[in-house]
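FYI - complex with adenosine-5'-diphosphate, inputs then prediction.
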Amino acid sequence: MDDGTRMPVVHDALQLIADGITELMGFEVAVINILDEDDGRLVTVAVAGNDDARELLLGARQRTSSIEAEVARSDPWGMFRFVPAERATDEQLAISWVPEIDVVDGPDAWDPNDFLFAPLYGDDGNIVGTLSIDVPTDGRRPDHAKRAVLNKYAAQTGQAVLTEVARRRLEEQVRLATAARKIVRDVSSELTVERIMEVSQSAISSGLSAVGLWIHTFDEDGEGRTAMYSNAGTDVRMPPELARMSRAAGELLWRAQEVAIIGHDRPTPPIISADQEALVFELLDGLGVSSLLFVPLGAGRECLGTLVLTRRSSDAEWSSVETSTALDIGHDLGRALLNARNFEREQQLVSELRELDTYKSQLISTVAHELKNPLTSILGHVEMLESATDMPPRTQRSVGSIERGAVRMERVIEDMLMLAKVGDPANALIAAPVEMGRLVEDALDLVSLTASRKGLAVIYDPPTEPVVALGDSSDLDQVCANLISNAVKYTPDGRAVTVRLDRRGRDVILTVSDEGLGISDADQQHLFEEFFRSSNPEAVAQPGTGLGLTIANRIVMRHDGRIEVESELGKGTTFRVILPAASVPV
Ligand code: ADP
């Protein structure tokens, strides 16, 4: 900003004016200073005429107070001010370029220490720049006629300087607002309203030059919860009347995609009544601020809250760059609030579902335990009855039926207990390296009798290296047993069942393929649901509980693995279990 090159177009205009004065008005030097609002000093941005002067003065800075002091000791010459050499102060001389000139004779002779300048004022009456001229080529202080023309130059310079100051202000606003917007845009990855506020609050208030800020978030159910986040912390109470007003006004503004400014000496915006405005003024006065920018926050059609930014009476007016950026921020923050709200809702739902799951597991496990004891007693008595030698054949058949039913019930109960165990979130997995080859061989042993009775070819090529998964050995044993026994169970006599065990990268893969009944696409959708049994009558004819695959799937998921199925009705089925491998072999 201080190198005189930041706004070349305007600086060129100022340079042209300075050049014009030197060429047309007969001065050797013309200097234009402009206010740098960042440090409140005047910076020399254009020097015309003398190269030495340009070299020395360009970029030099001077306090506005020193110019005010010069004004105080000067003679008014229209817009110009004249300080004759005899009144020059050391301070002014120290920062001036004093030319070496031949002084002419006469009462109107120009003294090298004469100071002729025009202070240029902004709308607020503060100095925003100066135009100073030096070394008249005729060696004389300007007469009345010359001063009148110089006045015109001063007025023109004043306009150009004001334009430059306004442009600089705008540029600064755009820079700040853009920086704020960038931060707010990034905030949509934050998952709680508190974090959103933490990250964006100071960026918004400094980016939009606000002294205070608060955000009012709406709840879905009417006026329910009104959370306020302000510069003063989260512990801010909003009077209910204001909260209601904020909500109604926010919704109107969001629909119109507008912001509103409420402040003393402004017309009441149409979104509130005069009474409501009086309430707002009360609040503003209490906070020591004079105006507020009211911004709706929303996403899609829904208004989710309001953002309020405040300013004091000594601050600048809200500019159009600021109000339009505020509306953009309303969109960005709105999206972030919606994300956070959805995330909160999702978390709530997950925890409710988890509670429900725990309850279900407990219920299943309690019922299964309760059934288990009487069933054990039934089976004990059946066994006793079977050993009786004097039973008539009809009674023997009945006892046989009771036993088969009881055994089936026992199986269902065992499966229910297992399901409750693997489905209980409270029952964490304790993982250790498990050699899968051993589990596969155990499962094959279990089905060998049935397989050979059905004349099935069971093909298994043990892997050359041990294949080790990371998990719970008895859980994984259950998975192998279920898939292999299903393959044997649902494959007609004389066909083949193939089992493979592989290690691929970080995965252990167990593949069980059969040439059995196959599973229809529709049935595949429900395969892992509790108590699901196929709609295929041939499959239903086989004994089963419909819990085996549910249990297997839960176990595999608990191990961070997955089960894949490929099947074609009448051709056969392949189940593939992918489990994380243990990094160290057992
Ligand atoms: P169950 O075998 O006790 O009925 P599962 O949960 O193990 O219960 O299997 C669910 C259903 O999926 C079975 O009833 C059967 O219809 C079908 N199914 C499972 N494995 C196979 C397979 N290898 N071939 C054909 N159908 C199968």
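Residues 197 and 229 are 7 Å apart (CA to CA). The two ends are 70 Å apart (CA to CA).
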